[in-house]
């Protein structure tokens, strides 16, 4: 997974899109490819931004690379565009929303008339910080934490069973469990006996 570029563009209803701020990481390309790849990303950003209807999101795939666009429309007429390789879609649009919100909070709309004078260095921080999609998507981060907890619990149960104790024996001997809970455990175990715990 890799983010190659993030761009913020002014996309009026009629006329051409204008790049207001952008950042790119072309370090995975050779020295001879970087110039061409950079030019193509700029061209692709403007073309896709102009052709995405206001208020919509879209993803356009070309070979192994994908351009994700969020045209917010409205009074600001801003579009966020991200070029990536294998980056999860939900994380992309979460990130684009953050970038656009931050941009509108820090850059006044009156500055859009002079794109060369716009300074938004935070876009470089977004590009670097969010190379890991779990940083952009809280649901993905929570899922990773749940997966890690599941692994820890599985290892804990495994270590108990490795010492020669069986979970069945522990349940039977437990004074902390009611007869109803013990019966529930045995019934659940019978019904799940065809399944393997991973």
From TrEMBL:
It is found in: Cell membrane. Residues 138-198 form the V-SNARE coiled-coil homology domain. Keywords: Cell membrane, Coiled coil, Lipoprotein, Membrane, Methylation, Palmitate, Prenylation. Residues 10-127 form the Longin domain. It is a lipid-anchor. It comes from the Eukaryota. One of its GO terms (molecular function) is SNAP receptor activity. InterPro entries: Longin-like_dom_sf, Longin_dom, R-SNARE_YKT6, Synaptobrevin-like, V_SNARE_CC. Its main location: membrane. GO terms for cellular component: Golgi apparatus; plasma membrane. GO terms for biological process: endoplasmic reticulum to Golgi vesicle-mediated transport. Belongs to the synaptobrevin family. This is Synaptobrevin homolog YKT6. It comes from Fistulina hepatica ATCC 64428. The lineage of its organism: Eukaryota, Fungi, Dikarya, Basidiomycota, Agaricomycotina.
């Amino acid at each position: 997974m890799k983010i190659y570029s993030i761009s913020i563009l002014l996309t009026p209803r009629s006329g051409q899109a204008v790049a207001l701020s952008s950042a790119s990481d072309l370090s995975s390309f050779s020295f001879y490819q970087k110039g061409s790849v950079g030019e193509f990303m700029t061209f692709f950003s403007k073309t896709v931004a102009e052709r995405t209807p206001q208020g919509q999101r879209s993803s356009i795939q070309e070979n192994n690379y994908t351009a994700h666009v969020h045209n917010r429309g409205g009074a600001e007429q801003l579009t966020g565009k991200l070029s990536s390789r294998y980056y999860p879609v939900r994380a992309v649009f979460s990130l684009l929303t953050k970038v656009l919100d931050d941009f509108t909070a820090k850059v006044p709309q009156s500055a859009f008339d002079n794109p060369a004078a716009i300074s938004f260095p935070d876009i470089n921080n977004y590009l670097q910080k969010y190379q890991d999609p779990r940083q952009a998507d809280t649901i993905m981060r929570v899922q990773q934490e749940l997966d890690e907890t599941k692994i820890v619990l599985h290892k804990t149960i495994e270590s108990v069973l490795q010492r020669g104790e069986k979970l069945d024996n522990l349940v039977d001997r437990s004074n902390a469990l009611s007869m109803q809970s013990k019966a529930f455990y045995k019934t659940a175990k019978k019904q799940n006996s065809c399944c393997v715990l991973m």
